[in-house]
Design brief:
Layout: H1 2-25, H2 28-31, E1 33-37, E2 41-48, H3 61-85, H4 89-112, E3 115-120, H5 134-149
Antiparallel strand pairs: 1-2, 2-3
Helix pairs in contact: 1-4, 3-4, 4-5
Amino acid sequence: MRILALTALAAFVLDQLSKYLVIHTMELARIRAIDVLPPVLNFRYGENRGINFGLFSDGSEASRWILILLALAICTGVLIWVRRQQPGPWALAGAGLLIGGALANVLDRVLYGYVLDFLNMSCCGIDNPFVFNLADVFIFAGAIGLVFLAPDPGSTRKKGQ
């Protein structure tokens, strides 16, 4: 569980620090766009009131709090699963990434009413209109890690069962 806690804390802090530096210190909220390594990496200011790709983004207070509660329920479910399954260190790190990223986005929703996004990546002639943040990367990586690194439920059975 220590690996999970440290990974979650690192993901949470890295996401919040990156948002503070890019959006507030570099004033992305004011200037709206910074080309870092175009077209591969750009900073574009975004306010996501929904989930991925702006889904469920009607902007209502009810939606905001439903998404907060949903994220907290998912974090709780992952913690319960980890306690029951006792996966290895890589799966614990995946769970930590997922939880840390989800809690960072929850904090955004509580503080601002939306999730702050700023990363935009395009390549190979494809102009990607979407923006995301490090928490989204951590959530995605953590979920993939849990899918591929979690123990097979059948492998925990005792011989003869």
